[in-house]
Amino acid sequence: MIEAKNFIEDIINEELSEGKVTTVHTRFPPEPNGYLHIGHAKSLCLNFGTAEKFGGVCNLFFDDTNPSKEKTEYVDAIKKDIEWLGFKWYEIHYASDFFDTIYSLAVKLIKDGKAFVCDLTADQIRETRGTLTEPGKESPYRNRSVEENLKLFEEMREGKYADGEKVLRAKLDMASPNINMRDPVIYRVLHATHHRTGDKWCIYPMYDFAHPICDSMQGVTHSICTLEFEDHRPLYNWTIENTEVEHKPRQIEFARLNITNTVMSKRYLKKLVEDGAVEGWDDPRMPTLTGIRNRGIPAQALKNFCEEIGVAKANSEIEVSYFEHFARDFLNTEAERAMAVLSPVKVLLTNFPEGKTETLEFDVNPNKPELGKRTITISREIYIEKEDFSVCPPPKYFRLKKDGYVRLKNAYIIKCDDFVTDEDGNVTEIRCSYVPDSHSGNDTSGIKCKGTIHWVDANNCVPFVAKKYDYLLKDATYPGQDFSERMNYDSVHVFNGFAEPYLASSEEGKAFQLLRTGYYKKTKGDVLTLGEIVSLKDGYKPAAK
Questions:
Q1: Through-space distance between the first and last CA atoms of the chain, rounded to whole angstroms
Q2: Against a cut of 0.85, is the pTM above it?
Q3: pLDDT, tens digit, for every residue of 90-114?
Q4: Active site includes 166?
Q5: Which of 256, 271, 346, 474 is catalytic?
Q6: Catalytic pick from 169, 171, 266, 328?
Q7: Considering 15, 31, 358, 381, which one is annotated as catalytic?
Q8: Kind plus residue range of the DSSP H or E element containing 132
Q9: Does 266 qualify as catalytic in the annotation?
């Protein structure tokens, strides 16, 4: 037994102590009809993590029962995402592995008088299903003989009927208070080439029928799924009992992950890709796991987030700033520090000797002193951010202004003596004097500075492109709005600036904290390109204890 942290672990502990199970066996069951997104990460971490905690195993199971939407491309992407998160599956299975078994069990239900072939259309079935307060109406085909049902079902398999012309339905109770139990469809005709079985089949089982059978065939003990399947559990249990499979798994539901300002639907994500609103499934703005990975979010930060939000029985929504908090917290510990200026303006240090270049040191990462120090240079000309100088500063402005002092990070205090503007009033050059005896760490000047700004040496820097990202959805909530109304079509902001040369020589994919700017990842580009991972500012405010 382990110390339980959620109700699922409580259930498993109880079953282990009672001897109902001896080894915990879970499965992560994505449908390969798109790329996994951050919502799937919770289920992924829960299924693999629960098995690990109890010394059990977790399968990777692909629910490939709808060939019209599924691709091998998605299968490969899902495997890569799981490996990125550091999980290892015990076995890989597909629903298509069990199609022959599922078909034979459907035949068994027909022979037992528990399933029938129905000619009603999907709309007619929906219209006769009833409501939460009114029972449904039985199909006029419900009382076909076993022999006729067997003949029609075989003809469905042989391809005699068109899509939607006939379905196989379980014969349950049209007056059941649970609408899912009102003669649900368990097989349908679908003429589509399957990504694994080709054209062998033209009928495919519905998820609610295939799901429990596949769980049983794999030896799954605990089928952990999201809360929308709670009302489907009676059908899950009915299928297990009435197909008389040997192994009987238990379905347990938990609340799915919802995050503000985030698209949490594979259908909408696919539309974004197809419409060209993003550059692909791995666009850094996408909440797909491949997009999150491409953005530079560390896998461990995502796992920490999923662990911390916990497992609940009721749906809720998490602030996107909470997820960013975990990324920022991890990167703060791990990322090297560097300096870069996104929107540069030149500063001339008028009293700095011409032709002189001075070498300075600063900590690679103050949280990891074992990494030591790195050198940068300073000379007569430097670049600072345009926003770090103000011609008409507001009250309590502690950055650079006329006749004001500011400290250059890891360097000297400077004073603004004058500035130059163009005909439009834009500042083109700032003229300052530096204080020689104010070196950072050895300041004897006696000058008190409230402001510190970052900078780069204009004579020892490289041009770079910075990409800052905003949310794909411009609002956190959407009452009365559809998806298109919420889209933020101005979610990428590009800057052309200068960075210290070390960034250009570092390896692709490395994450940095650009001082006073944010956390950035080095990406591909003809010039040095840095993509924002997460800002420095933490929008998450922990609750007071």
A1: 31
A2: yes
A3: 999 999 999 999 999 999 999 999 9
A4: no
A5: 256
A6: 266
A7: 31
A8: none
A9: yes
